[in-house]
Amino acid sequence: MNILYVNTYYYGGGAEAIARKLYEKMSEEVNTFFLAGRIQPDLPEEVSASLTGLVDRSLATLQGMNRGNTTLHIPKTTKKLLNLIRDEQIDIVHFHNMHGNYFGIDDFGKIASACGGVVVTLHDMWTFTGCCPYGMSCRKWVNPAQVQESAGQVSTGLCIACCGNEAIGTKKEAARLLQHKQAAFCGSGVHFVTPSRWLQEEALRSILQDEDVRVIPNGIDTGQWRTFTDAERKEARRKYKIEDERIVLLFAANRAGSPYKGYSILSQALRQLKDPGKFACVIIGKAGELKEYPRKDPEVSDNKRLQILYTGYIHEQSRMNELYAMADLFLLPSLADNYPTSVMESEASGTPVFAFRTGGIPEQIPPEAGWLVDPVIRGQEKEAAVRLCEGIEEVFAKGTLEVEKRRSLCRRFAQEHFDERRMLERYLALYHEILQ
Prior knowledge:
The structure is a single chain. The chain is built from 13 helices and 15 strands. It is of the alpha/beta class and about 425 residues long. The protein has a 7-stranded parallel sheet with strand order 3-2-1-4-5-8-9, with helices on both faces. Helix 10 (about 340-350) crosses helix 12.
């Protein structure tokens, strides 16, 4: 059996990690190949890339810039895929993220008809909305057959009269683009996979309502992650020059500035802490403009000021494990999310999670592994920041006692529910089912 994995990038955030893991670990059972839409430094020799030149990448980006990160035709990628399918006798093409302006939606049919089957893992809602990775408060993407009257208004569905979401403005072409996606993805025998039950339910309200949409939760190699002893945590904190008596909060995202990851809510919440001097906050990810925070107040001494550490983006798994395990609490203030890999990694490292109750996140955080608060509602961001701040303070009202109770429970839950072997076995079963 020959499986070709396709994703925008080889290295990156959660979608990249899952696509890369399937490519690497599934090779023990079948022959695997990988096509990255865009070139990156240090790609393994056996990994192919489609858009390798600056001109190609720039042109593709310009094509999709006004279409919500959607391109209709990328002949170079189509040719590359068809050649790989022919030369390597590919049985199944397994797509992950198709947005990123490297793949043409209208070219999808040629790929589907050239191999034995197609699997598409949905890492967000982009496949069944006009433009948005997440609909958030907007429900205009819903299939008209399932549109219901809400708050005195009836949505037309199918992204007609697009209003955008909390992060993306109105896109005039949204309805037309969704028509292209419907023509490409529906009725063509594609097998869709969602990591969370939440995303499956959303997909079945959309243009994909009559398609095969099944749930296979993402997984990680829990054996690569471990909890730290008290002595190890103290040593790690000294390494990063964090004062011993500080309570360590952690925030991590591939793009820390992504509007979906909620850093703006977090920064508001941190500013409202009654005793910021007892906390330190570690920020992992491409921070960019975030480094302007916090502004220095000359009248506040350092021991009464929140300590902030920016690490930038981290590639090394061992260092990520160190930072997760060092922390007392992992903060996930996402406004929208699916099944974040960071939650699995934090719990496997023995660190409980505090998050908004949104998307598939509640499926990952039972009471023994963390805390959930009501999600962010459009126009009520300040109230959400207050909930986040009050929640953090409540968790540590008795010091780190509540956190310590949950460390071993987090680890156990991760081992029982996030072990990658389950994910690999279920995908392998799906491949066999398709070819039979």
